[in-house]
Amino acid sequence: MKNNYLEISQVGIEFPTEGEPFRALQNVNLTIAKGEFISLIGHSGCGKSTVLNIVAGLYEATEGGVILEGREVAEPGPDRAVVFQNHALLPWLTVYQNVELAVKCVFKASKTKAEIRDWIEHNLSLVHMDHALHKLPSELSGGMKQRVGIARCLAMQPKVLLMDEPFGALDALTRAHLQDSLMDIQQQLGNTVIMITHDVDEAVLLSDRIVMMTNGPAASIGEILCVDLPRPRDRVVLADDPNFNNYRQQVLRFLYEKHKNPATKKSQAA
Amino acid sequence: MRAIPVMSKIIQCAEMLTFTNLRLVFDKTIKKLVLPGFGILVFLLLWQLVANNIITSLGQFPGPNQVWEQSNTLIAEHQRERSKEASFYERQEQRNTKKLAKNPDAVVKIRAYTGKATFVDQIGTSLLTVAFGFMVATLVAVPLGIICGLSESVYRCVNPIIQTFKPVSPLAWLPLVTMVVSALYVSDDPFFEKAFLTSAFTVALCCLWPTVVNTIVGVASIDRDLINVSRVLQLSTAVHIRKIVIPSAIPMIFTGLRLSLATGWMVLIAAEMLAQNPGLGKFIWDEFQNGSSNSLGRIMAAVLVIGVIGFILDSLMLAVQKRVSWDKQAILR
Predict the structure, then answer these.
(1) How much is the ipTM here?
(2) Smallest Cα–Cα separation from B283: which of B137, B70, B85?
């Protein structure tokens, strides 16, 4: 396995403001292997999304850069598909058409019409949405929309799948379903994934490594935790597993003792 | 004795059932027919009352009754004019066949009928003019709005110009448009009449702006996530506009188009009146100049027709908007 499939090196970013420019990130270094599942966790406003957006190419880093398979990331592209928190499906297109738009961008030259159709249907069946091909997003529940958003990204066969709090807007049961689906799919396809989350259980359950970020401004990577639990993982079995709980505790300790939310720190001081 | 309460209960239920059904139907009729009808009735009564108390130099101000009479006269005049036209062509035809029968080499003349334009003709002219002007405006406004909405720099360049021309009255444009059309549209066999083009371009110049402004707002406020999706997919500008920008902005574009059409229709009447270009505006002005005791009634009939046509035009646009809108849940009115 190549160890430096994706390299984030010395990344820092400043945003222009009215006065002094705001420094959101500083010295972010991370190397990700192919097929690895990475979670980024940290308090709100610590710049997790900014890291993801830099990898996606949606933001340009002020210093440092991102190298994917030996090539520098300069602009957004379909090899780094993004699953947005609010699904970002085009509301005027059906489920099928939404995935089709992405598939046609990537495979227009290399697949025939029939292959494209099969590929769209295959990816929608991976997320169990093949029953609603011709529905509009407005006719679907939140969880279903997010499934379609994931299918759209999977169908692009990205080198890295970037997920920005993909399950943040869903209720707990739906979230658990989708987490299980995502684990299955990742096991099956071996995608490289970077996922942002707020949810400690989710991070431990899904990840190979958990990247914990310090608070902003000038946020950076605080600690990296390797989650060495055998796959496939079962949430019910793991609930009693001392290792699982140990990992959980380490993340919790980082978030609530070492790097308390700046907002709560202030209120305690006052 | 025990059966009777049960029976009466059943009957009661059945009655209630039909009663609620009737109630629903009744409510619907009230909302859709009775209330608007009531409103119109009250308006007609008030109108009659006010009209009775206004005496002008052209006689009494017309009430609903006189206007109804004049409307019928206007339609009758139209039919009379049409039959005159038909008989004119018939006579011409007979004359020519006779001439040709005598001498097959004779040169026959075919002249067009030149009767005066009736009220109904003027309605047709006005509708055609507004349609043409509105089409020209749309073809300019929607692309301009999309470009300004997509690029902040272009918007900053164009905005002062838009804001300056937006409040200009059609009457100010009219002399300029008239002179420009006369100077530039020179043709021996003109497809359009100059008067038609003058009115249409005046309409276009005035009804451009609501569509431009609303399209800019619609395009500039597209969901950031959707723009990011487009960037990740590396959509070309053309595909981006077709697949993301236009569908997103469609509701705002249509809001603009409806405002534009309403403005255009108002502007047209004023332009026709001032320029003496054929159309409903000219009809009103001619009647005013004519100054007979029937004139006010005929003008009032024209006013009502203008209003009803404006209403119909807006309903048509609403129907089109409902058809092309992807958000079927949105309440459009």
Answers:
(1) 0.88
(2) B70
